[in-house]
Amino acid sequence: MYEYIVGTIKYISPQYIVIENNSIGYQLLTPNPYAFSMDGKELKVYTYFHIREDAHTLYGFVTREEKQFFTKLLNVSGIGPKGALAILAAGEPQKIAQAIEQENENFLTKFPGVGKKTARQIILDLKGKLQDFLGETGEDLPVDMVTLAENIEVTEALLALEALGYSQKEINRVAPLLEKEKLTTDQYIKLALKKLTSL
């Protein structure tokens, strides 16, 4: 119903902002209210109008991409506006999309309210539907070495592959396969090399 509102920010709280347009102040719940500033400058805030029987709520976003990702998350069974907002407050659409495409449950469970079951549901409902957020070749996005795996051995193996000259695309393809095993760093490297030759 409302694509965006153009106005000036009049109030910022930990949960929402108030943007004034034509002497009307609109309360917008937003992932990060402090991404906005009350500098008196006019700006465009992308909005999503959520209607329930007991509430009509406006959500605000810095970019159209952020808003679109929010609506994608609402399509996941078990995730409502508050849950989607919490995920966006803690992560960037591109990195979240990358984790979903790689079926990286460890990354997704770091978000508030997202357990193993919800992470699995997010992957099930959204994998293959987020190309707009990955760019032209999502596989070329760099692997987040810190959050990719819980054990240091996998991370060390991936860094070793990078040092050996393998491309980011190749590393991203093999990374999810390594996480399914429980091995030493050397064993992960050997397994990765074996997988890479068969891709």
TrEMBL record:
The keyword tRNA processing does not apply. Its main location: cytoplasm. Residues 156-199 are annotated as: Domain III. It is found in: Cytoplasm. InterPro entries: DNA_helicase_Holl-junc_RuvA_I, Hlx-hairpin-Hlx_DNA-bd_motif, NA-bd_OB-fold, RuvA, RuvA_2-like, RuvA_C, RuvA_C_sf. Residues 71-90, 106-125 form the Helix-hairpin-helix DNA-binding motif class domain. Transmembrane segments: none annotated. The keyword Cytoplasm applies. GO terms for cellular component: cytoplasm; Holliday junction helicase complex; Holliday junction resolvase complex. One of its GO terms (molecular function) is hydrolase activity. Keywords: Cytoplasm, DNA damage, DNA recombination, DNA repair, DNA-binding, Hydrolase. Homotetramer. Forms an RuvA(8)-RuvB(12)-Holliday junction (HJ) complex. HJ DNA is sandwiched between 2 RuvA tetramers; dsDNA enters through RuvA and exits via RuvB. An RuvB hexamer assembles on each DNA strand where it exits the tetramer. Each RuvB hexamer is contacted by two RuvA subunits (via domain III) on 2 adjacent RuvB subunits; this complex drives branch migration. In the full resolvosome a probable DNA-RuvA(4)-RuvB(12)-RuvC(2) complex forms which resolves the HJ. HAMAP family: DNA_HJ_migration_RuvA. Belongs to the RuvA family. The RuvA-RuvB-RuvC complex processes Holliday junction (HJ) DNA during genetic recombination and DNA repair, while the RuvA-RuvB complex plays an important role in the rescue of blocked DNA replication forks via replication fork reversal (RFR). RuvA specifically binds to HJ cruciform DNA, conferring on it an open structure. The RuvB hexamer acts as an ATP-dependent pump, pulling dsDNA into and through the RuvAB complex. HJ branch migration allows RuvC to scan DNA until it finds its consensus sequence, where it cleaves and resolves the cruciform DNA. Has three domains with a flexible linker between the domains II and III and assumes an 'L' shape. Domain III is highly mobile and contacts RuvB. This is Holliday junction branch migration complex subunit RuvA. It comes from Perspicuibacillus lycopersici.
